[in-house]
Amino acid sequence: MEISDELRQSPDFAQGRAEAEVEIAAGRLGHWAFGKLVTWSDEIAEVLQDRYQIDFQIVGGCTTRSSVKARAAGYNECMNEEIAVRFGSDVVAAIKRELAFRKHAERDAQKK
Question: pLDDT tens digits, residue range 2-59?
C-alpha cells in the first residue's frame, strides 16, 4: 500500500509504528486491515495465524477515520518490514492473493 504524506505526518502514524515495535519485541506479528474488505477476511486471518502466527485484525471499513488509517499504516509498515525479514517476502499480500485466486476459481467452477 502506498502511504500518503498526510498519513505519514500524522502523530497516529508514529503511534502505530511504536505499537508494532512493542509487539515485535514481544515476539508477536500482526496486520491491521481497513478499507474495502473481502468476504473471506476470516479465512485470511486463519491462514495467516496457522502458517505464520500473524494476527490479522480488521480495524476499519470503507469509511475509516484518517487517524485509524494513519495508525494502521504505521503499524503495518513496521510489521511488514519485520515480516519480510522473518519470511523473506510479504506473506500477508501473498496469502490475500492466494485466497482471492481460490475464491474466484471456486466461483467460476460453480457457474459451470
Answer: 788 888 889 999 999 999 999 999 999 999 999 888 888 999 999 999 999 999 999 9
Helix (H) or strand (E) holding 55: strand 54-58
Domain ranges of the chain: 5-111
Give the count of beta carbons closer than 10 Å to the beta carbon of residue 100: 13
| Burial of 20 (C-beta count, 10 Å sphere; 0-12/13-18/19+) | buried
In the structure grid, which three cell numbers stand for residue 47, read together? 491462514
26-52 as b/e: b if 16+ CB within 10 A? eeebbbbbbeeeeeeeeebbebbeeeb
| Those residues with Cβ within 8 angstroms of residue 95's Cβ, 6 or more apart along the chain or in another chain | 44, 47, 48, 51
Instruction: Give the closest residue to 79 by CA, choosing from 20, 14, 32.
Output: 20
